[in-house]
Amino acid sequence: MGLALAIAMDATLVRGALAPAFMRLAGDLNWWAPGPLRRLHDRIGIAESVPEPTPTGDLAERHAVPKSTRPLVGAEGERP
Do residues 79 and 73 touch, judged by C-beta distance below 8 A? Predict the structure, then answer.
């Protein structure tokens, strides 16, 4: 019973509340790497990838896929 209670407390209190709160407070220090590891990443070429922003507003309309304006069925019910 004690082990189940400890696992439940760890899952909810520590990982659900304390870890995210600490990461918010630490900011960029969360992503600190030791010197040898950072040099290895620089030598190999491993870098953080930044996602491309999605277009919004006028840009979204310019990049939108045009919809076909042709009807599937004609006015009298026949297929075009």
Answer: yes
16 DSSP assignment = I
30 neighbors 22 (Cβ within 8 angstroms): no
User: Cα separation of 17 and 38, whole Å?
Assistant: 30
Q: Average pLDDT of 55-78?
A: 57
In angstroms, rounded to a whole number, what is the distance separating the alpha carbons of residues 33 and 31? Answer: 6
- Report yes or no on whether pTM surpasses 0.70: no
H-type alpha helices, the chain: 2-9, 19-26, 35-44, 58-63
Mean pLDDT of 13-26: 89
CB 74 within 8 A of CB 80: yes
CA separation for the pair 1, 36 (Å, rounded): 44
